[in-house]
Write a structure and sequence with these properties.
291 residues, single chain, seven-stranded mixed β-sheet, Rossmann fold, 2 domains
Length: 291
């Protein structure tokens, strides 16, 4: 089993004809993902990487049956691209683009809600979602892990890859990179709920980082709603106060958003928290062996 992305998912790529879109379309195809076309209004009717290019998301969905869009569009045009996907009511829109203005993200997220929440948005500024052995939508390397029964949700792309690799012998049902911007379409809580409901997931790895209160809110959700074991890692214990670290949302202000505060909140509800990514992988390994 997997969440949101399965072997039956059909993917289109908005911005497929650009440099990043081309590169990662090739990677997704090489991984076995069912990429069925691209979208670029200026190149509609052409063929790129052996795939048809459509003028709109709606047209691409009608012609291919696509139910997932991956967005590789420059930041200035991302809002319009995502709103087009929402108008077409595509079930899943994975926004890889980095540097999207927070105001734009807020606008297209609110637009999705106003349209009835028919489109799940993952990102922006994220590596996407991978269901090993089934499909891959985004930039997560397809050859670093195997299919298994761990679910992973992470703010950090790099740490997603590291945990997937360190636990490659056990494997993952799905790995979701939600992105580290202050406003994102899919949260830790959304993924935790999906993994809790997924019969193919036995345990969950959650990766957070300094800034905001998402991890504290996730801890409260875990206490009330998650019965599957959760192991976590929080990046940023040594981050200096007031300095943005890597992600736009990763900034500590006073005592708010510190790694220690997040670790304390998670441990209070029974989540085991590693001090390093490798220790987190070891904790998950011990947990799986005890199940």
């Amino acid at each position: 089993m997997a969440i949101w992305l399965t072997e039956n998912s059909k993917i289109i790529v908005q911005g497929m004809t650009g440099g990043e879109g081309t590169k990662h379309t090739r990677r997704m195809l090489a991984s076995g993902a069912a990429v069925v076309g691209g979208v670029n209004a200026r190149k509609a009717g052409t063929v790129h990487e052996g795939l048809p290019v459509f003028g709109t998301v709606a047209e691409a969905m009608k012609e291919t049956g696509a139910d997932v869009s991956v967005v590789f569009v420059p930041p200035a045009f991302t809002k319009d691209a995502v709103k087009e996907a929402i108008d077409a009511e595509i079930p899943l829109c994975v926004v890889i683009t980095e540097g999207v203005p927070i105001h734009d993200t807020t606008e297209f997220w609110a637009y999705a809600v106003a349209k009835g929440g028919k489109t799940r948005i993952i990102g922006p500024n994220c590596p996407g979602i991978a269901s090993p052995g089934a499909s891959n939508a985004g930039i997560i390397p397809a050859d670093i892990t195997s299919a298994g029964r761990i679910g992973l949700v992470s703010k950090s792309g790099t740490l997603t890859y590291q945990l997937m690799y360190e636990l490659r012998d056990i494997g993952f049902s799905s790995a979701v990179g939600i992105g580290g911007d202050p406003v994102i379409g899919t949260t830790h809580i959304d993924a935790l709920q999906a993994f809790q409901d997924d019969p193919g997931t036995d345990a969950i790895v959650m990766i957070g980082e300094i800034g905001g209160d998402a991890e504290e809110r996730a801890a409260a959700y875990i206490e009330q709603h998650v019965t599957k074991p959760v192991v976590a890692y929080v990046a940023g214990f040594t981050a200096p106060e007031g300095k943005t670290m890597g992600h736009a949302g990763a900034i500590v202000s006073g005592s708010a958003g510190t790694a220690q505060a997040k670790k304390d909140a998670l441990e209070k509800v029974g989540v085991r928290v590693g001090k390093t990514p490798s220790e987190t992988a070891r904790l998950m390994r011990e947990l799986i062996q005890s199940l």
